[in-house]
Amino acid sequence: MLESLVLSILESVMGQYVEGLDVKSLKVAVWAGKVSLKNLKLRREACYSLGLPINIKTGCIASVEVTIPWKKLGSEPVSIELNGVYLVAGPIDESDWNEAAQKEWAWARKQGRLLRLTQEGEMKRLQRAEGGAEAAAEASAASAGGADSEQTLLSKVLHNIQVSLRRVHVRYEDTTHSTLPFAAGVTLAELSLFTTDAAGNRKYCVDASAQHRRIELHRLAVYHHSDCRCMVDTSIALPELCAWLGEMVASAGAAGAGGAAGGADAAAGGADAAAGGMRS
What is the pTM of this model? Predict the structure, then answer.
């Protein structure tokens, strides 16, 4: 059950946002406990399912690592790591906004809603099942040695998932829906999400009734370039474009508030200066 659930989530989520996902290889990797995906190209229509009328002009995820310790799920967390998330988006071109494009956008939006509703329903079902499983586990503890039921184990896994997001740059460019063309973006060196004890120390939590989670953000920066005449040239090779976007992400190793402020300035200044080499 656990293997099927993990595979289903990865297929539905990853398949919705990236191109060329190899489902057969993904299935083998899930059963092996180590999923490693490299250089994933984002779909142009990936934002449609979120109800956003924008196209992804270009974008990729350098690497996705999912570690599933099947033999120690009751004591070690599932880890999800995304490194190098680069995206350049813009509004849907009105010249391309024909009847077929509108139907594609509406259908993708409906699919996204259905997927979210399905996932919410599955989570509620698991929560209801968990309550019954805990009662059954207590009743059979004496004869069965107190082994965790599959539902209770699944609950522990979901509560203790660790997420790490490194080197992110999301940029939006618009030359048609404003009095002046502009570019705006967000860069992030690292985001970490994990469970802790009451003192804030990283820890695998087995008590679902008292959950502590910690989110850490490193080197978050926002920039806006009004009257921007230098837009990203999407004809440039994707690796080169991603390298350029990555250069503007401040290093997570810099310390101090002054360094963080400098990172924000560097990201904003870098977006203005470096775009000169990526103009259309």
Answer: 0.72
